[in-house]
Design a protein that fits this description.
single chain, mainly alpha, 4 helices, 0% strand, flat
Length: 111
């Protein structure tokens, strides 16, 4: 699951390296575009890392539950945490409308 996230993680690393280049910051428009993409990808990478950590914790708890009942009590909470982090990651991976970040002028008239 989430195999496409690896491409985004690789892009995140590339954008991070691009941000370290002084030439990027010489062009304000390019710097703004690169920083915006870095912020978008950072959210996805953080959510993926949280999901992987929760999945690893759940797997470890299930293994240790065979030997110790205290770990068996943690399995339902960890299962819920995995489901929550998975749902958050899925939400972040949904395609976004390119106009979401643009400003809007709204006029409200009484009448």
């Amino acid at each position: 699951m989430f195999e496409s996230v690896q491409a985004l993680i690789d892009e995140h690393r590339a954008v991070q390296e691009e941000l370290s280049d002084p030439a990027v910051h010489a062009d304000p428009a390019r710097a703004k575009r690169v920083n915006r993409r870095y912020a978008e990808l950072s959210k996805i990478v953080a959510a993926h890392d949280a999901w992987v950590a929760a999945s690893d914790d759940l797997e470890a708890a299930r293994e240790l539950a065979r030997e110790d009942d205290a770990f068996a009590e943690e399995v339902p909470a960890l299962t819920e945490q995995v489901a929550t982090t998975e749902a958050h990651l899925r939400k972040l991976l949904l395609p976004r409308d390119e106009d979401d970040d643009r400003d809007v002028i709204l006029e409200i008239k009484g009448g």
